[in-house]
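Task: sequence design from structure.
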């Protein structure tokens, strides 16, 4: 074991930030960004120092970052390797800095350690300025927080600005994402995707993203679409098509509200998180684990037994009733969440929480691109609406044909909880935007219903 030799400002940056982290955990049960901000003020290059002993894996993209991060983290951990992660979802530069400082020791261990880090799309270039990752993962690109990111092509450029700084990093990319093909970069690339689809749909929806060829702007054709604009695409005009896949879903053998049984590269895996989007997350994690030479038995066990990240298909028991919290933040993700809910044949209750804070995106007009009409086919006992924009979501649901006589206006988390406790049936699905989900979980934590906030 040898001692780190660091600059004096780095030393004080780490010590002070560690004290702030301890105080934040004790007093506020969190505080994941502020310590990092302080550290960066004291030493703008602190990431170079605190990441030295890690093989860093960065996970970015619009949807699936947190779940994929959790899956990969557990695969590495169960391979008996030392690994850390920013499991609170604090994925900006300051939050990532806090994560590394929290795990920093002034003694350097000889064995290699891993850091599986979720990173915001716009922050990739801020991290690769100081860190050379072993692997960078991009899950997908959808319209999200248009006031912050702009269109998907802008988001792609932000990510590529970060990747171009580290040509040594291996890339694990979603091959079904048309924006991620033919990137003209020196990095080694592993592509994953689907070789089959449940419904063999070939017609892209009018509200789908990235419908036009990145090379010639002609409309894509598809052999099949998995969801939104993802699938086996090709351009009739210029010949651009999906790249060759190294890891692929060949068959979806079972799809339920509990999970999925799939065949990947001729082997069967059960993914205990439901929905097509979680099959993508599992496939991405498997592809990364294979690159890290993790044993197949460990991969299969982790996919079958993975625990939900907070707010991502998280199940909570309230007086014998199951409360399932699902984060929703854009049309593509919301549609997949609704498709997953529709797999449940029981009598269900729905709670929709819509906020418009900075982290959610100020513009909530995107809810009109969500296919809420699918809910008309379900056996819904009660529909609860809440959040700062509760009337917007109520109007959207009424227009979609949901029975507004069963609407319950949840002006406060207290009323929402009391309504949930009185609901008929065994399950309540809570679909919430980011800050609405965080606020509701904090409320449940204060009530003692959730024991662990982060």
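Answer:
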């Amino acid at each position: 074991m040898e001692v780190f030799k660091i600059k004096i400002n780095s030393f004080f940056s780490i010590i002070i930030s560690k004290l702030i982290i301890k105080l934040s955990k004790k007093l506020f049960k969190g505080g994941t960004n502020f310590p990092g901000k302080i550290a960066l003020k004291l030493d703008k290059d602190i990431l170079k120092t605190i990441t030295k002993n890690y093989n860093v894996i960065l996970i970015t993209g619009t949807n699936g970052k947190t779940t994929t991060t959790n899956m990969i983290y557990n695969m590495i951990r169960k391979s008996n390797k030392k690994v850390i992660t920013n499991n609170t979802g604090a994925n900006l530069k300051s939050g990532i800095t806090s994560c590394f400082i929290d795990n920093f020791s002034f003694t350097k261990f000889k064995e290699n350690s891993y850091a599986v880090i979720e990173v915001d799309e716009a922050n990739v270039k801020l991290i690769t300025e100081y860190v050379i990752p072993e692997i960078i993962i991009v899950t997908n690109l959808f319209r999200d927080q248009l006031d912050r990111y702009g269109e998907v092509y802008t988001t792609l450029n932000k990510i590529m600005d970060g990747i171009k700084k580290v040509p040594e990093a291996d890339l694990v990319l979603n091959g079904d994402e048309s924006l991620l093909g033919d990137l003209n970069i020196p990095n080694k690339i592993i592509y994953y995707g689907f070789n089959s689809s449940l419904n063999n749909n070939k017609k892209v929806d009018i509200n789908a993203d990235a419908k036009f060829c990145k090379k010639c702007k002609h409309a894509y054709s598809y052999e099949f679409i998995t969801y939104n604009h993802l699938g086996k695409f090709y351009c009739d005009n210029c010949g651009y098509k999906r790249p060759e896949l190294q890891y692929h879903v060949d068959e979806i053998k079972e799809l339920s509200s509990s999970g999925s049984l799939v065949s990947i590269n001729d082997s069967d895996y059960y993914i205990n998180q439901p929905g097509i989007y979680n099959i993508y997350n599992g496939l991405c994690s498997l592809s990364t684990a294979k690159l890290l030479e993790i044993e197949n038995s460990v991969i299969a066990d982790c996919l079958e037994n993975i625990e939900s990240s907070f707010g991502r298909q998280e199940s909570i028991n309230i007086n014998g009733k199951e409360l399932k919290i699902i984060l929703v933040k854009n049309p593509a993700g919301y549609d997949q969440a609704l498709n997953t809910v529709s797999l449940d044949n029981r009598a269900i209750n729905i709670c929709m929480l819509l906020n418009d804070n900075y982290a959610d995106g100020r513009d909530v007009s995107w809810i009109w691109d969500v296919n809420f009409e699918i809910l008309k086919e379900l056996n819904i006992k009660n529909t609860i609406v809440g959040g700062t924009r509760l009337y917007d979501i109520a109007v959207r649901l009424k227009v979609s044909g949901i029975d507004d006589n069963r609407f319950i206006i949840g002006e406060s988390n207290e009323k929402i909880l009391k309504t949930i406790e009185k609901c008929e049936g065994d399950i309540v699905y809570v679909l919430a935007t980011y800050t609405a989900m965080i606020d509701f979980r904090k409320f449940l934590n204060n009530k003692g219903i959730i024991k662990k906030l982060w």
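The two ends are 32 Å apart (CA to CA).
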